Structure prediction request, 441 residues.
Amino acid sequence: MAISSQHLIDFILSQADTTLILSQRNSEWCGHGPVLEQDIAITNISLDLLGQSRNFYQYAALLTGGDCDENKLAYLRKEREFKNLLLAEQPNGDWGQTILRQYLFSQFQYLLFEKLQNSNDEQLAAITTKALKEIKYHLRWSSEWVIRLGDGTKESHTRMLHATNELWRYTGEMFMPANYESIAGVDFSLLKEEWNKKIKSIFEEATLSIPENVFMQTGGKDGTHTEQMGFILAELQYVQRAYPNSEW
Amino acid sequence: MSRSNYKRSFELAGSEVPPLEGFREAHIWQILETVCDPEVPVLSILDLGIVRNVKLLPCSPLGDGGKDGGIEIVITPTYTGCPAMDMIAMNIKFALIENGYKNIKITSVLSPAWTTDWMSEAGKEKLKAYGIAPPNVKQQVCNHDLFVPDKAVQCPRCNSFHTHRISEFGSTACKALHQCDDCKEPFDYFKCH
Prediction:
């Protein structure tokens, strides 16, 4: 297989993996949200992300050919084969941490997909154009919540500071492209500038400051994950591993 | 061909549509009209604008009146993660099989992306009668500003525009939660997309 085809598959898989893992994390809130409406909101976002990951997996399976399909890609790959961002696999923590993780990601995903919607690759353009419509809702919802909690009570503000300290070290990875990401034709340093500008304005409104001189953790895009990942896959893949080839 | 092109081709030059094919296609559109959204059963998949195209594959001259030539139905998902889509594809197949069609292929396309602007006017009326406020024309979703209330959504029960949004996420991917400030009833709003 040509290098460029393998790069495209890897890039599509990285998008599929990040949306799947974040979806899985958000879905842990189902039935546990702080209020019913917000429980429904986070699980709706989880469902949208799952839909996006299915589109990406189906496309990756098509490009791979043979008997590859979306279920094999999601349920039968090992931890080191997953290319998701480390940010996506981080634990939910409290509601504030979940909200911040979603906001940091949605802001990134929005800016990235805005560029990918003009991709020369028709299917990649179609998937991201469609997803952008939903991401706008995710971004608006999570931005509002970051502001509400950051600029809220003393307690909520303290929790958002804690969440920022927990998550910031996983944001640098988004803008450090893996080898295969050259296929996307995206200028990641420009993306970083745009992202920083947006984050700065929301953080200011939320009375939160952006941490400085933080060492950035990397590795997710190339399969080196934090200790969280094994636990997620153990739950996510349990049924397929225990009962191979079982179908819903 | 698409539904509107198909209708127009009849109007403009009925003779250009081969009678057998014309009959088959009209029949298929009639069958599709009977397939409903499992989550919002008052809407047919045609009301929603899910069916993008019906393609007839050439049928053998020895066939049973044109029913075994094979059909491709092109659909587009409403929301990326909507679990109803798999069921809709299956129900389309069942409805066509029940009516004697074979060799049915359902193809899902993502582009152009589905929008609530494709929902028929009849569909919007049916939604309202069912108690769900139909989508306003596409505008809020394009608005990035935070903490901005939705443009007035009309209460499907008492018709008041004096309503507010409780949450922009609701019981299904396509709905938001609203409440009427006059009759106090909470209601679903089919959000614009």
Summary: Residues 80 and 224 of chain A are 6 Å apart (CA to CA). Chain A has ten helices and no strands.
